[in-house]
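queue> pop job 88
queue> type: inverse folding (structure -> sequence)
queue> payload:
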């Protein structure tokens, strides 16, 4: 298959930048909405309906006005970037493979690579939040989408950094591990387990004073942001560093799969409520075709947890919107891939 010649570059991980192939800025977009529409189509893997796009960007207009504005903006984009879009009377999408080099596509591919060199390149591509500092005052639906999408890419970047930290800890390259752990902490300064990781790495690289200072930083942030004291584990680590007792042979946070495999069997599953009953054969054989993006986001959370960086995910939606089905399908797939995982559930009265 002939490789598509790239006529430009689209950077979205950080401030939006659109360049020609020679690196010069690409101008001519009629409005911020034209740029936003191009970025939206670049991120979305599936075609979008014209009705959806008109509502997303011109929801305050009538459907006729919205679709008219959409057609004008699509023509503007196509005149600047020939062969970039694929459209018909109903659907719009970015042509794949694209005539644009797109940083999110490259980042996403590299982030899934098992090679540490690829992960390191992915980390350099992430220059900030998706479409950082970009906003549309009169398009609240687009803004809602952008907030959720930023969190999704933020999560994938965290996953890349955690993989790099774990790799360098296993490789005993503690200074490189410290570099990526600090980047993790910059992203999420309230994550106490990352503060502990940084404290340990500072201690084993001979920076005892900096490690003790890191504890004070952690304590201050937890007090200011969450109004809590450091966990006993963090205070114990502080005392060990203060007394010169810290040694780090490998990752301070073993993968969850390793921790579970070494845990004693106590018959926990028999004590758990059956929120996630074993699926029937017909349920397993039926493909779950909806909510693929949400499943991927949940899988990203699981991947982070398996590296030792667990967190809490909230699945929200109106009654009857499919939240339980989504979580059940995620749990089923997770247990098929990781049989050692335990699924626990519960429920309560909303009032």
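queue> result:
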């Amino acid at each position: 298959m002939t490789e598509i010649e790239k006529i430009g570059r689209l950077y979205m991980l950080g401030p939006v930048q659109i360049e020609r192939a020679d690196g010069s800025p690409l101008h001519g977009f009629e409005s911020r909405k034209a740029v936003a529409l191009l970025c939206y189509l670049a991120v979305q893997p599936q075609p979008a309906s014209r009705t959806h796009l008109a509502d997303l960007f011109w929801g305050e207009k009538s459907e006729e006005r919205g679709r008219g504005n959409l057609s004008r903006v699509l023509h503007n984009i196509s005149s600047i970037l020939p062969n970039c879009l694929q459209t018909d009377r109903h659907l719009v999408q970015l042509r794949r493979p694209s005539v644009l080099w797109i940083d999110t596509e490259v980042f996403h591919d590299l982030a899934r690579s098992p090679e540490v060199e690829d992960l390191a390149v992915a980390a350099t591509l992430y220059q900030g939040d998706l479409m950082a500092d970009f906003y549309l005052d009169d398009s609240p639906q687009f803004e809602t989408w952008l907030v959720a999408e930023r969190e999704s890419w933020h999560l994938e970047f965290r996953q890349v950094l955690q993989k790099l930290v774990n790799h360098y800890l296993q490789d005993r390259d503690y200074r490189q591990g410290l570099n990526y752990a600090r980047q993790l902490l910059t992203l999420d300064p309230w994550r106490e387990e990352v503060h502990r990781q940084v404290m340990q790495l500072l201690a084993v690289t001979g920076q005892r004073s900096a490690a003790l200072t890191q504890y004070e930083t952690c304590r201050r942030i937890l007090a200011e942001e969450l109004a809590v004291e450091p966990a006993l584990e963090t205070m114990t680590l502080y005392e060990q560093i203060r007394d010169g007792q810290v040694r780090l042979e490998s990752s301070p946070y073993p993968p969850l799969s390793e921790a579970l495999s070494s845990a004693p069997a106590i018959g926990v599953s028999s004590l758990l409520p059956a929120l996630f009953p074993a699926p029937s054969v017909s349920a397993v054989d039926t493909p779950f075709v909806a909510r693929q993006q949400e499943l991927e986001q949940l899988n990203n959370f699981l991947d982070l947890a398996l590296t030792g960086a667990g967190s809490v995910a909230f699945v929200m939606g109106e009654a009857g919107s499919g939240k339980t089905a989504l979580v059940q399908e995620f749990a089923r797939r997770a247990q098929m891939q990781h049989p050692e995982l335990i699924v626990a559930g519960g429920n309560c009265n909303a009032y």
